Amino acid sequence: MAVYVIGSLNIDMFFDVDHFVRPKETLMPERTQVLPGGKGLNQACACAKGKAQTWIAGKIGTDGTLLLDTLNKAGVDTTFVETEKDKLSGRAVIQRDRKAENCILLDPGANHALDKEDFEKVLVHVGPEDIVLIQNEISNLDVLATLLKEKECFVVFNPAPVTKDIPDDLSFVSCLVMNEVEIEQLLGESGKPEFLCGEWLKRYPDSSIVLTLSSSGSLYMDKDKTIFMPAYKVHAVDTTGAGDTFTGFLCAMLDRGFLIETALQFASAASAIAVTMPGAASSIPDLEVVKEKIEQNGDVCPIRR
Ligand code: RIB
């Protein structure tokens, strides 16, 4: 069993600011950092750190050495990462304020050079026991969705960011992972987390959904059960990539055969640790650190509702 991530690889340029730049304003950052990122890369690194056998398929530009090095160091197999000779890697310009909030400007770069042939090259290796994990920062998502519909495997979809590129028919999804804002955008409805999860399941009853609720925790729902996982209390310094750490650890634990309760607990602990450190991929903790966090907080457990 393995996890195949098909997704984005970005160079994240972080700017620490007192407040987000306003119209007509010029602001000097207090600190600037260039770090590896991209939802695909972050989630793949988290999967590998969760000790799942992990592949990533994606595209970088000639400036992508940092991205390849990061993946290799985390233990991700990069056989399916191709370098586009005449392109630059995806780039995210991230403002990070004193409240640990961020806002992101994203230039997809080489991430938007992925096509059907690239998807087929990796999907031919995917078996029925494997997980395919995708997000919405690459090109031709509709083509990938059609190919996945024909494949027998478990598909985890993190439809972030929510854009018009997300296919109307999401019946290829086995498990949807997203936050509260994104699900409201996706469904075009608003309401409490339970209601939103229920609305998703009305449309796709054979799938499951995990809603991340920031510092309140996360909620899992399928047609048989609802599980609430409270959040670990931490002091956040940077929330960038926290959702990716959550999603990657969730997939790793599911791939390794753990129950959803355990997967939620590891995902929650890993993302809580991630927000205490700056950066996206660089803040993903090792499995041992996550285990320690869980042991030290025995009272923070998944609850059946
Ligand atoms: O989810 C966080 C990621 O979103 C960052 O690493 C950035 O690259 C953007 O894609």
The shape is: globular
CATH topology: UDP-N-acetylmuramoyl-L-alanine:D-glutamate ligase
Q: Summarize model confidence as the mean pLDDT.
A: 97
CATH architecture, by name, is 3-Layer(aba) Sandwich
By CATH's scheme, which homologous superfamily applies?
A: Ribokinase
Number of helical stretches of at least 4 residues: 9
Helix/strand/pairing category: alpha/beta
CATH class: Alpha Beta
Strand order of the largest sheet: 5-4-1-8-9-10-11-12-13-14
Order of helices and strands: EEEHEHEEEHEHEEHHEEEHHHE
Report the major sheet: 10 strands, mixed
Give the secondary structure arrangement, pairings included.
Elements: E1 3-6, E2 10-16, E3 31-37, H1 39-49, E4 54-60, H2 65-74, E5 77-83, E6 90-96, E7 102-107, H3 116-123, E8 131-135, H4 141-149, E9 154-158, E10 175-179, H5 180-187, H6 193-203, E11 208-212, E12 218-221, E13 226-229, H7 242-255, H8 260-274, H9 287-296, E14 303-304
Parallel strand pairs: 1-4, 1-8, 2-6, 4-5, 8-9, 9-10, 10-11
Antiparallel strand pairs: 2-3, 6-7, 11-12, 12-13, 13-14
Helix pairs in contact: 1-2, 1-7, 3-4, 5-6, 7-8, 8-9
Alpha-D-ribofuranose binds at residues 8, 10, 12, 37-39, 42, 92, 104, 106, 137, 240-241, 244, 280.
Question: What does this entry look like structurally?
Answer:
By secondary structure, the protein is α/β, with parallel strands linked by helices. The protein has one domain (3-8, 38-88, 111-304): UDP-N-acetylmuramoyl-L-alanine:D-glutamate ligase, CATH 3.40.1190.20. It is 31% helix and 25% strand. Strand 6 (90-96) and strand 7 form a beta hairpin. The longest helix is centred in the C-terminal third of the chain and has 15 residues, at 260-274. The radius of gyration is 18 Å and the shape is globular. The relative contact order is 0.16. The mean pLDDT is 97.
